[in-house]
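hey so i finaly got around to running the thing on NADH-ubiquinone oxidoreductase 23 kDa subunit from Desulfurobacterium thermolithotrophum. pasting the sequence first so u can double check i didnt mess up the copy paste, my clipboard has been acting weird all day
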Amino acid sequence: MKDMFIESLKNLFKKPATHQYPFEPSPPPPNYRGNIVYKKELCIFCTKCELVCPPGAIRFTYNEDGSREFHYNPYLCIYCGECVRACPKAGCLIQVEEMAPPATEEEIPNWDEIEKEAEESKKRWLKARKKPQAKKS
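ok and heres what it spat out for the 3d tokens, dont ask me to read them lol
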């Protein structure tokens, strides 16, 4: 009993073995692959990142004017980095040592709707491209 009391007193003055999480951020683990950052101005819209993404966290929607929009779900992403490796344009997709911020239910995108819209818009876009063009006289 005496030994336990002495050990308890020693522990009162020792540095804690754990991180003080709310006050100190946890350090990233070794070989941490962080959040994906997309730079629209560098994108050539080749859609290679969408094709190689294992969980399907990247989707492109096709607009009626032929332009495309990039959609990324950081809460679905497994941070494997395949999209970064597949991107032919350097700097368009990069990984940074930041985690996705915690989100409330309202902030999380409705990914099911985005996926559905991406599939439908791609079908419309492909159908419009296949239409035979009128020959010029």
